[in-house]
Design goal:
The protein has about 550 residues and is an alpha+beta fold. The protein has 14 helices and 14 strands. β2 and β3 form a beta hairpin. It starts with a helix and ends with a helix. About 15% of the residues are buried. GO terms for molecular function: cytoskeletal motor activity.
Length: about 550
């Protein structure tokens, strides 16, 4: 008897041969889709997980490291314009150790290592220049460690020392920073850079450091500090005040019913003001006290005249007489309190500010203009003595642009939703088509397998079981018995007509056992031909064992 595997292969081949052209096309497409999906899944599962080996590399370092990876046969991927090298996670540490042993990635800022190469014959100018370069390299490396800074370059302007204090200049520094893509340095980070640089150089203040980014934006100017120029200060102040007033009005009149504009006049100059005040302490002792007394008694001449306008002597006065002179002088020095107050006035003060507020008509149902003016004045810190002005007007807003923007936004949302729906439908259609193809293939295969599941029965075995059954020529087949007839005669077997089997069974109808077996065979043949064949084989095995 044929083995189950060969029978299954035979049935599968017969089923495929019986397919129509359309069925074969669908089956081929389904098998191809399954094979491609399996290959893609296997490739994705077998792909290693990549981890950054180095990032922010220069072109020279990236080329050298790539050559090393190619020599070692390690797969790699490049990203961020070649500045980042990705390698499998299992090889990242080994490759980092190899790169470090080769001095990669190389640093463009040597720092204090420059001093190691100085010889004893170096001139004073070479020593000072090398020391300044070392400071610049160390500062650049430190600034580059700040989050968001990709690379940094520091340049120092240090004046030469002089014995004249009045002629001693102050050092300045300029810092150029290149930030990582999509990153902007905050004001606190800029202040950190200025303070870090100024604290590293003697006699340098934070206002003596200029910070510029790769886009050419001045983040900190010399003499101004990290807060930016006067225009930037005024803009920041106006935005801050406008945001405070706008937040308050949105809560009062509703969002979109008020608009605020702030204009501030900032002080551009800075200076130092010194004030001195004196006061006398109460009941305080004198610092020192002195007195002088003069007294004269005796005869003397009278008053004499004076020279006239023409240098002619005027005749003397009266005659001589007695005279007395007394003089007393007293000097007292008291302690005096002296107070000196020095105030540095920085740039950025407010000379005057004006605020204009427009409120949508009808939004102030329970409020009047005076109440809104008081609210705005309090929120903005208006100082009338300084000349600040607040103007609040109730106007009808033009909402045409806002409505058009809202309509455009709604259309965009609708288009996005339709695109997402179309993509979902497309995905579902693809999945449904694949499932439909798979179901059709399974149904066709099941039907073909059910048709071909009938195995050929060697009726020679039946003849061995029933030797008394004759083999008549070819009577008509009974439909009930025809179900168990083989589709193809088995090779090298004795063919026997099924009609003879039917005649033999009818002749042995008196035998109750044979009649029961016939009824069972008829019932099994009508329900399941495969089970009928199995039943016949088991019956023949039982008879042979007897």
């Amino acid at each position: 008897m044929p083995s189950p595997m060969s029978n299954a292969a035979t049935r599968l081949g017969d089923a495929v041969k019986s397919f129509t052209v359309a069925q074969r096309t669908i089956a081929i497409i389904g098998v191809a889709v399954l094979l491609l999906g399996g290959i893609a899944l296997t490739s994705w599962l077998s792909k290693p997980s990549y981890t950054p080996l180095f990032s922010g590399l220069s072109g020279e370092d990236a080329s050298t490291i790539v050559d090393q990876l190619q020599t070692d046969g390690v797969p790699y991927e490049l990203s961020n314009g070649g500045g980042t090298i990705m390698v499998p996670e299992t090889a990242v540490y080994d490759q980092r150790i190899k790169a470090a042993s080769a001095g990669l990635p190389s640093s463009s800022t040597a720092g204090y290592s420059l001093l190691d190469d100085m010889g004893v014959t170096s001139s004073e100018f070479q020593q000072s220049t090398t020391y300044k370069r070392a400071l610049e390299g160390e500062l650049a490396a430190t600034v580059s460690a700040i989050d968001g800074v990709k690379t940094a370059t520091v340049r120092l302007a240090i004046p030469e020392d002089t014995v004249f204090v009045a002629e001693q200049g102050k050092p300045t520094a300029s810092v150029f920073v290149e930030t990582t893509p999509g990153t902007t340095l905050s004001s606190s980070q800029v202040q950190a850079i200025t303070h870090l640089t100024s604290a590293s150089i003697d006699r340098m203040d934070a206002s003596d450091v200029a910070v510029i980014d790769a886009q050419g934006t001045v983040l900190s100017a010399v003499g101004v500090g990290a807060t930016g120029g006067s225009d930037q200060q005024a803009s920041d102040y106006e935005k801050r005040v406008a945001a405070s007033v706008q937040t308050m009005l949105d809560r009062v009149v509703g969002v979109g019913n008020a608009t605020v504009v702030v204009a501030a006049d900032m002080k551009l100059e800075s200076g130092e003001r010194v004030e001195e005040s004196f006061s006398t302490p109460e009941d305080g002792p004198a610092l020192n006290e002195s007195s002088t007394t003069e007294a004269y008694e005796g005869a003397g001449r009278g008053n004499a005249g004076v020279l006239g306008p023409d240098n002619i002597a005027v005749p003397e006065g009266g005659a001589n007489g007695d005279g007395t002179f007394n003089s007393e002088t007293s000097t007292r020095n008291n302690a005096v309190n002296k107070t000196t107050e020095s105030t540095i006035v920085p740039a950025g003060g407010i000379n005057r500010q004006t605020i204009s507020v427009a409120v949508n008509q009808g939004a102030t149902a329970n409020l009047n203009v005076a109440t809104l003016t008081d609210l705005v004045s309090s929120a903005a810190g208006i100082d009338a003595a300084r000349g600040d002005i607040v103007t609040v007007e109730e106007l009808r807003f033009n909402n045409a642009d806002a409505q058009a923007a809202a309509d455009a936004l709604a259309e965009a949302d609708k288009a996005l939703a339709e695109a997402q729906r179309a993509e979902l439908i497309r995905t579902l259609a693809i999945v449904a088509a694949i499932l439909l193809v798979a179901i059709i293939v399974l149904i066709v295969y099941a039907r073909r397998s059910r048709r071909q599941r009938r195995e050929p029965l060697d009726l020679g075995e039946l003849q061995g079981v029933y030797p008394a059954i004759p083999a008549p020529s070819a009577p008509a087949l009974d439909p009930a018995v025809a179900l168990i007839s083989p589709i193809e005669p088995a090779p090298n077997t004795t063919s026997i007509d099924v009609g003879a089997v039917q005649s033999a069974l009818q002749a042995a109808s008196a035998d109750t056992e044979l009649q029961r077996m016939r009824s069972d065979i008829d019932q099994l043949a009508s329900e399941d031909p495969a089970k009928t064949a199995e039943y016949l084989r088991s019956m023949m095995d039982d008879r042979q064992s007897v």
